[in-house]
Design a protein that fits this description.
Blueprint (H helix, E strand, L loop, with lengths): L6 H6 L6 H7 L7 E3 L5 E3 L1 H5 L8 E7 L9 H14 L4 E5 L4 H5 L7 E2 L2 E4 L1 H4 L6 H21 L6 E6 L3 E3 L9 E3 L10 E3 L1 E3 L4 H8 L3 H9 L2 E5 L4 E3 L6 H8 L6 E5 L4 E4 L14 H10 L2 E5 L4 H16 L5 E6 L1 H7 L12 H19 L5 E6 L6 H13 L3 E5 L1 H4 L5 H13 L14 H13 L4 E2 L2 H15 L4 E4 L20 E9 L4 E6 L18 E2 L5 E2 L3
Parallel strand pairs: 3-16, 3-17, 4-15, 4-16, 8-11, 17-18, 18-19, 20-22, 21-23
Antiparallel strand pairs: 1-2, 2-14, 5-6, 6-14, 7-12, 9-10, 12-13, 14-15, 22-23, 24-25
Helix pairs in contact: 4-17, 7-10, 9-10, 13-14, 14-15
């Protein structure tokens, strides 16, 4: 059936259950839920601590092909699969990230699914939700203020103000703040220096919250963040500024996972939200682990295409948290295959089987990459109304030739009814025990060699290009004891290469690493490849122009 209503209209018409009923279905008593209104709540840390001895359910990762302007529907598929598993009698929960205000008011839009496969309350989730991002923003900027304050009052840590690496953050797209000068206005305002803002989801505090196992681990990681360097070039940590305790206090509630529900009243944990092209792009470890103790199947997602989100999910999140996926779903669309095959967005409505076949090279690369982690793969074809039988058949035939299978998914229009075949197959694969998960590289490999491993094995790049300064910095970190950390590649999401216009499955290109950053608290080294912005800008006509309250006081224009 064709969906006539917008996502927000469908979400507004949802028959939500009280959040206590959603919690009860998972065995969470009302006394362990901290409600935020009637339809969302945080799960008490004490309850989570009591789950440690329970066995884990099966973990299913949903990832996707390289994103295109045609849209792929990864979150929608995640939600639909969770609903589908429950519809066939399985006890399942989903785990997704929270939405950032920047993309919501910019170009990308919300992050709660779409059509009849959504998480609700949609408006709350895409606005302030339970305040987690505001807490992260405040904790991050408290540290910024304490650094400048320490310098103002005599600089007892001997900080070289030219080497303060801790910037400020804001959960909004604002290119004017990328590079700024602070403390202007004379002696009373401190010592002027150059700095800037990143978007909150790029903050190391966000990454730490999503990787920490509990509050004590959170504080230890916060204290280990490098914020500046002294004149002798030794690092200054957040614990040296004595900020880690107060930051933990600000993040105490934000550390507790958020419980909401799908349109079909199935449980959904929505917690944390690091960017996948800048950070590691996964929801929180604590939410995922909690869900695995409470459900037999947990469906989660990783940001953007499998070359970014899935790679980081495996090499960072699974490595750090001891997780092991039982099955991976790679989401593809006929439309995305056409665009990767050279078709312009305006021409996607016309059948073009040849372009679909041409564009499937991108899908094939992602399938092979995920298989390289030792996990079985199934492709979910997210159905659009204009897809033709011949185009769908072309994708299925290609996937079969890659040693996998593709299943047509109609969850957007039909909810769980359009996902029963996929849900049944995913459960079979997860239960089969055929996964033999392994990370791409060992902990003891050199940092530059780890970067090369991702570049060669995942991107299929030729040479990794980095100047002597970058290589020397990596060697210095190895000597300081950070050589066992995984690498977090920061690059465009629109291509395997660093050129966002290079679609398909390019090979042999140079991968430039122009900068490396040590996220000592989060526990990874960021390699910035090509041009990547840690503070996005707004498009010419941002979504914010169309967002308003209608006469009934309801939100309009949020998508």
């Amino acid at each position: 059936m064709q969906v006539a209503q917008s996502d927000i209209e469908i979400a507004r018409a949802a028959r939500k259950k009280p959040i206590q009923e959603i919690g009860a279905a998972l065995g969470i008593g009302a006394d362990h839920l901290l409600p935020y209104g009637h339809d969302k709540a945080k799960v008490d840390q004490g309850f989570i601590d009591g789950l440690a001895d329970r066995p884990d359910g099966k973990l299913v990762l949903v990832t996707a092909v390289t994103p295109t302007p045609a849209g792929e529907g990864k979150t929608t598929t995640t939600v639909g699969l969770g609903d589908g598993l429950n519809a066939i009698g399985k006890k399942a929960a989903i785990c997704i990230r929270e939405a950032s205000l920047g993309p919501n008011f910019g170009m990308k839009g919300g992050a709660a699914g779409g059509g009849y496969a959504q998480v609700v309350p949609m408006e709350d989730m895409n606005l302030h939700f339970t305040g987690d991002f505001h807490a992260i923003t405040s904790a991050h900027n408290l540290l910024s203020a304490m650094i400048d304050n320490l310098v103002y009052w005599g600089n007892e840590q001997d900080i070289d103000t030219r080497r303060v690496v801790w910037r400020r953050v804001l959960d909004m797209n604002d290119r004017a703040l990328r590079q700024i000068t602070t403390s202007l206005g004379g002696v009373a305002n401190g010592f002027p220096r150059e700095t800037g803002f990143d978007i909150t989801v790029a903050s190391e505090v966000m990454a730490i919250l999503c990787l920490a196992k509990d509050l004590s681990d959170l504080q230890e990681r916060l204290g280990a963040m490098i914020v500046a360097y002294r004149r002798d070039k030794s690092p200054v940590y957040a614990r040296d500024i004595k900020a880690d305790g107060a930051m933990t206090v600000l993040l105490k509630d934000a550390m507790q996972p958020n419980l909401v529900q799908t349109l079909e009243n199935n449980p959904a944990f929505v917690h944390g939200g690091p960017f996948a092209n800048i950070a590691h792009g996964c929801n929180s470890v604590i939410a995922t682990k909690t869900a695995l103790k409470l459900a037999d199947y947990v469906v989660t997602e990783a940001g953007f295409g499998a070359d970014l989100g899935a790679e980081k999910f495996m090499n960072i999140k699974c490595r750090k948290a001891g997780l092991s996926p039982a099955c991976v779903v790679v989401v593809a669309t006929v439309r995305a295959m056409k665009m990767n095959g050279g078709v312009a967005k305006a021409d996607l409505g016309t059948e073009n089987v040849a372009a679909v076949k041409e564009g499937c090279a991108n899908l094939g690369r992602h399938i092979a990459n995920v298989k390289g982690f030792g996990v079985p793969v199934v492709v979910g074809i997210n159905h659009f109304a204009g897809d033709t039988e011949a185009e769908i058949a072309a994708v299925k035939d290609f996937v079969a030739g890659e040693g996998a299978e593709a299943i047509l998914c109609k969850h957007w229009a039909d909810g769980s009814k359009g996902m029963t075949e996929m849900a049944t197959r995913v459960a079979e694969i997860a239960d089969s025990g055929t996964a033999d998960f392994r990370t791409l590289y060992p902990d003891d490999m050199g940092l530059f060699e780890k970067i090369e491993s991702v570049a060669h094995k995942i991107y299929h790049a030729g040479a990794v290009v980095a100047d002597g300064k970058v290589r020397a910095q990596l060697k210095e970190w190895e000597e300081q004891g950070y050589g066992n950390l995984p690498v977090c590649m920061a690059k465009t999401q629109y291509s395997f290469s660093t050129d966002p216009g290079q679609r398909g499955a390019p090979t042999g290109f140079d991968l430039p690493v122009r900068e490396v950053r040590l996220s000592a608290g989060a526990g990874f080294v960021v390699a910035i490849c090509g041009e990547i912005m840690t503070m996005p800008g707004l498009p010419r006509h941002p979504a914010a122009e169309a967002i308003r309250l209608n006469e009934a006081g309801e939100v309009e224009g949020l998508f």
